[in-house]
Design a protein that fits this description.
9 strands, TIM Barrel, alpha/beta, Adenosine deaminase domain-containing protein, 16 helices, Metal_Hydrolase, binds guanosine-5'-monophosphate, 14% strand, 363 residues
Length: 363
């Protein structure tokens, strides 16, 4: 197995509906095609298209949501996505998703999230820990020890924590509803809030009350920041002091300076930035500057399904493009532990996982 696959990795920026397998999407499209809800041949072409602009990506998401937004499917894709990350040795995953409401099928934001949690419970291929220990009761215990005892063999283990996304199309009230839901679901592994969705839609001030409320309540916050040129937003987003930001592409000089001073960790999504042409070529990617400045950063997939990538592939790509060796890439993965939205106990366990992998991989 290649080292970028076998080494443990931390994934902190993965959108649930962007991480679905192509095969699952095609299967769902075929079924809806047979029911006459969509025209399968049109949809197949859209799903299999390889390079998409950022605008086309958001059109694809509208289609994906038609295919996936019912409770059973949400449960299925959650299970598959977790198992896919675990199979490439992701040992800690923060999965983000936008709670959706669809009255016509009796879906509320709450029931959508229950379906997600059901998907976590349905994971069997690996040991999953998604309930923070302080909330762990006998009932919710789906722990490692139980799985070990069942078949006598040690399975792979993955920690999963959930972030609820506020979609930039939403109103202040809808965003606050999402934050309240996150607070209600803390005992089911929800640890924070993400602001995402089409970056040319909506305004920072619309989401600020909800984000402030989340911050006051002690939820962790990560923001999609500087994905497109928007002179009005980057500065207030950095002033807000989120625990992490995603992308950080279109920054002015002063904003780079502020970012570096604040030491806010950046979730870097190389393939996503290249495929959407947000960055024209990998050799000018800001990864290099941030890495050389020892700025906190973590490699992530963004949408492994939509961009046909995997976290292992992102490590391989960074290694090749920036001339970093196995040891440097391993250290880069390990530093991700510092930026996770989980407590010291989880961090300590991950440190031990990396230490033991370092021995096995001769690092
Ligand atoms: P979901 O939240 O439905 O599970 O995952 C898909 C959603 O995540 C998209 O509809 C969009 O709101 C958000 N998303 C996925 N990829 C990106 C991205 O690259 N940039 C931004 N801003 N949002 C994204």
């Amino acid at each position: 197995m290649e080292w970028w696959v076998s080494m443990p990795k931390i994934e902190l920026h993965a959108h649930l509906n962007g991480s679905i397998r192509d095969s699952t999407l095609l299967e769902l499209a075929r079924v809806l095609g047979e029911k006459g809800v969509i025209v399968f041949s049109d949809v197949e072409h859209v799903i299999m298209k390889n390079d998409r602009s950022l605008g086309e990506v958001f059109k694809l998401f509208d289609l994906i949501h038609i295919l996936t937004t019912d409770h059973k499917t949400v449960t299925r894709i959650t299970k598959e996505v977790v198992e896919d990350f675990a199979s490439e040795n992701v040992v800690y995953l923060e999965l983000r998703t936008t709670p959706k409401k669809n009255d016509s099928i009796g879906m509320s934001k709450h029931s959508y999230m229950e379906a997600v949690v059901e998907g976590l419970r349905a994971v069997t291929a690996v040991d999953i820990d998604f309930v923070p220990h302080k909330f762990n009761t006998q009932d919710s215990l789906n722990s490692i020890a139980m799985n070990d005892a069942c078949d006598g063999t040690k399975k792979k283990k993955i920690y999963v924590r959930l972030l609820l996304s506020i979609d930039r199309r939403e109103t202040t009230e809808a965003a606050i509803e999402t934050v309240k839901l996150a607070l209600e679901m803390r005992d089911l592994g929800v640890v924070g809030i993400d602001l995402s969705g089409n970056p040319v839609v909506g305004e920072w001030n619309t989401f600020l009350p909800a984000l402030k409320f989340a911050q006051e309540q002690g939820l962790y916050i990560t923001l999609h920041c500087g994905e497109v040129l928007n002179c009005q937003e980057v500065q207030p987003m950095l002033d807000f002091l989120p625990q992490r930001i995603g992308h950080a592409i279109f920054f002015e000089e002063e904003e780079w300076r502020q970012l570096k001073t604040s030491k806010i960790p950046v979730e870097i999504c190389l393939t996503s930035n290249i495929k959407t042409e947000s960055i024209s070529s990998i050799d000018i990617h800001h990864f290099v500057d941030l890495y050389n400045a020892k700025h906190p950063l973590v490699l992530c997939t963004d949408d492994a399904g939509v961009f046909s990538t995997s976290l292992s592939n992102e490590y391989k790509l960074a290694s090749t493009a920036f001339g970093l060796g196995k040891k440097e890439m391993f250290e880069l993965a390990r530093t991700g532990i510092e930026f996770i939205f989980a407590g010291d106990e989880v961090k300590q366990d991950l440190v031990e996982t990396f230490d033991s992998a370092a021995k096995k991989l001769n690092l």
